[in-house]
Each structure stands twice: as structure tokens, then as C-alpha cells.
Design brief:
Residues 62-115, 120-139 are annotated as: Disordered. InterPro entries: ABATE, ABATE_dom_sf, Znf_CGNR. This protein has 139 residues and is mainly alpha-helical. It is 55% helix and 4% strand. The chain has a domain at 2-46 and 106-138. It is extended.
């Protein structure tokens, strides 16, 4: 099993796919995952039921916010002159940039270390590509 994992990691490194290595985004889970999806969108491990728990938590938070009337107010509803006490408030949805930032934000010590490793590997790769392109232009 160790040899299979080592071979798989070697394959990811040689194919320059180290960005596919992640840590599960579950609150209490630090499982390492390899994202083999086409669009590289896997966030949770398969064996910890982390995705389901995260979705249930988000749903329950939305429902509680609706019941309590503590939903976030959008800027457009605050700025409109016709927004009185009886107007409905809308949930403020995060932009795609905010979602991407949240996904890339490490949640544990091991995730921070993994992110630093990926960044270092990416910098080394980019330096190597620059050197390679400079030598090919001189030829």
C-alpha cells in the first residue's frame, strides 16, 4: 500500500498536478485528499461524510436566520429609498472570488503546511519554466 501511494504521489509531482492534493474542508477532519475531478472542485473526503454534514449545517443556519430575521442585508436594499420596515431582506450571496478565497483558505495546521508546500512547488516550477524558455529563445 505504501508503494502504491508513493508511486501515485510521484506521478502527481512529475505531471505537475500537485495542486490536486488538498486537505478535507470538514470542520473536524484533516484527511488528505487527491482531487481527481475534471474541474478540480473536490473539497471534502469520501469516507468522513464531511460534505453532507457541511451542507446540513449551512441549510440549518439559513433556516434559523430566516426564522429569527437575522439575514444579511444587501447594499441595494439598504440604499433604496422605498425600503421600509415591511420590506423583505435578501440573503447576501458571496461572489465567486470570495468563494474561491474561502476554498483556498487553510483551516488547520496541516492545511497551512500543505498550502505552503504547494506554493513553494509552484514557484520552483515557474522558475524552471522561465529558465527553460530563456534557453530555448537563445537557441
Amino acid at each position: 500500500m505504501t508503494a502504491t501511494i508513493a508511486a501515485s504521489l510521484a506521478h502527481l509531482v512529475t505531471e505537475e498536478e500537485t495542486g490536486r492534493l488538498r486537505i478535507c474542508r470538514g470542520d473536524d477532519c484533516e484527511a488528505a485528499i487527491v482531487d481527481l475531478t475534471r474541474n478540480r472542485s473536490k473539497l471534502f473526503c469520501d469516507f468522513g461524510n464531511c460534505a453532507n454534514r457541511a451542507h446540513v449545517r449551512a441549510y440549518r443556519a439559513r433556516q434559523a436566520a430566516k426564522r429569527n430575521g437575522t439575514t444579511a442585508v444587501t447594499e441595494s436594499s439598504e440604499a433604496s429609498p422605498n425600503s421600509g420596515a415591511g420590506s423583505k431582506r435578501k440573503l447576501e450571496k458571496p461572489s465567486s472570488a470570495e468563494k474561491a478565497e474561502e476554498i483556498n483558505r487553510p483551516t488547520s495546521v496541516s492545511a497551512v503546511a500543505a498550502k505552503e508546500f504547494r506554493d513553494r512547488m509552484r514557484e520552483e516550477l515557474m522558475d524552471k519554466r522561465k529558465k527553460k524558455s530563456k534557453t530555448s529563445k537563445k537557441s
